[in-house]
Design brief:
This protein is an all-alpha fold. The chain has one domain. The protein is built from two helices and no strands.
Length: about 80
């Protein structure tokens, strides 16, 4: 893919984005506010996901391992043993 067609493709994507968000109807100052708000929200959601998704995955994994441990003890015939 050459540079000219890549430039045209990126411009086409930008036009599609403006059509989908109806931002082509906005004035320049409205576009700045709109894009600033959207980028801020995207950054905040990404940062939150970066912080909390690993914690949730770790907790779910520990819960799953605890369930396997309880099932193994139950199946081994030691139901009176405390976990």
């Amino acid at each position: 893919m050459d540079f000219k067609s890549m430039k045209y493709y990126l411009y086409w994507l930008y036009c599609q984005f403006e059509l989908i968000t109806c931002s082509y109807l906005m004035e320049p100052w409205e576009k700045i506010l709109f894009y600033t708000f959207n980028i801020t929200m995207l950054v905040m959601i990404s940062y939150t996901a970066y912080l909390f998704i690993p914690v949730h995955i770790s907790t779910a994994f520990q819960f799953f391992l605890y369930g396997l441990k309880v099932a193994a003890l139950y199946n081994s015939g030691l139901p009176n043993k405390k976990v």
